Amino acid sequence: MSTTTDPTGSRAGTRADRDTHFEVEQFYFEEAALLDDGRYADWLDLLAEDLDYWMPTRTNRLRRQQALSVAARGEAAFYDETKESLAWRIRRFDSGMAWAEDPPSRTRHLITNVMVRHVDPAEQEGFTDGDLWVRSAFLVYRNRLEREENVFAGGRTDILRRTTDGLRITRRTILLDQNILQAKNISTFF
């Protein structure tokens, strides 16, 4: 894929310019800080109203069956959320009724390998070439109580929409590298 627009002026599928790439990275660093600081209500403000937040499960498969290693829509998922359902989870954290997060976990979100392109509407129905397709890698360290430690590694594919309030996450697909979670619970946001 090229970094320039085609003769018709479309940016579909092209790499974002340097300023846009920097803006997206700074957006992700701010998001990580909000999550690590436990400022979940502020994190919610970074999510679009029509958010699709999905983390499918995965299984080990032979090389010839790799297409089946990630669960499809409608199959098992760690998260299959909307902004409304995430807001419900956060209200539950704040109520003191979420035993898995009382006392709360301490997390550190490391975001790297950020690639930014303009959405190709032919590949992403319902989006325009003004929206951004972003792929990133993450490492999330979680510590809770005296001895509970978890490390989650994986990748995210997002679609970001530019609004009058700044960038907003409208779609996030999270894929963990591990298929068996060693954590006692998964109350961490990615």
From TrEMBL:
Its EC number is 1.14.12.19. SUPFAM superfamilies: NTF2-like. It comes from the Bacteria. Pfam families: Ring_hydroxyl_B. GO terms for molecular function: 3-phenylpropionate dioxygenase activity. Signal peptide: none annotated. Keywords: Dioxygenase, Oxidoreductase. GO terms for biological process: 3-phenylpropionate catabolic process. CDD domains: ring_hydroxylating_dioxygenases_beta. Coiled coil: none annotated. Belongs to the bacterial ring-hydroxylating dioxygenase beta subunit family. NCBIfam families: PRK10069.1 (NF007479). This is 3-phenylpropionate/cinnamic acid dioxygenase subunit beta. It comes from Streptomyces sp. R08.
